[in-house]
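Quick check before the chapter quiz. The format below is the same one you will see on the exam, so make sure you can read both the input and the output lines.
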Amino acid sequence: MKFVDEATIRVEAGKGGDGCLSFRREKFIPKGGPDGGDGGDGGSVFLQVDEGLNTLVDFRHDRLFRAKNGQPGMGRDRIGKSAEDLYIKVPIGTLVYDDDTDELIGDMVQKDEKLRVAQGGFHGLGNARFKSSVNRTPRQTTKGTPGEERNLRLELQVLADVGLLGIPNAGKSSFIRAVSAATPKVADYPFTTMYPNLGVVRVETEKSFVIADIPGLIEGAADGAGLGIEFLKHLSRTNLLLHIVDACQDLEQVINDIKTIETELMHYDESLTAKERWLVLNKADVLEKELINELKSELYEQLGKNISLHVISAVTKEGCQELVYKIFDWIAEQEQASESGQRKN
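Here is the expected output.
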């Protein structure tokens, strides 16, 4: 299914039912009192997370969502029926904005989470409500209030533990194919990946993590060059960034590629540069071991000894499983540290 990560929709809550103007009229009771009932409430509009969805593509065709109106009140003190609320299914990870004010309304990241985006109108009051000792035959009623109407902008940010970074054709799609069941398109030309791909990496039974293959970045991506800024936002939800680097280049080009990605991350959102980031030298199967060691030594010298550097071949899967276990252990450590911090608080 085509990945669509942004959509604009309009939601309209239902109007409240009007109150009824009525007087009791029965045989032998010529002057019955007021018996107009209240109207029913209008239906509200909710967004609800559905884990079975992973795209906003359905909203490209259905853009208007309208809840039903409440039923008007009736004589004999009968209350109008309230309208049912309208629930719109969205994928987990959906950001909800008011498209007119750009206000962030909600960030939907919990299973089955619900968010009310338009309040239904309140019911009108029937004339029976206005009966008093000084006004035995009130003719006063109130109308139901209109429901809220809103234009919403939905943005889907991929939920993944690990995000893959790199220039086009560095081997990110090959890596995600090697370690998960995901099958992104792989070819020897730039921009093969046109949409983010998610893969579940199974380490052991009931032990796994989610990895996201983000389309390749080029210089100027934060300003919209290449596939542009629209995919950089998906990295904000990941815990660990794997920077895949093509090792089959001279040292100067390798350094340049690394610096290009760092610059784009800084330009787009400085907080991304604070995330844990590992360098992964890919295509090790093409190079002699001595050349790989020389490249690693040069990178440590120029980038610092504290960098986390790993060597793999996504084609032959050399080093991939070892890297997967290291990633899982790191994620588990972060989760334990987070739980420990929450207990202390």
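If your answer matched, good. Residues 184-194, 218-228 have pLDDT under 50 and may be disordered.
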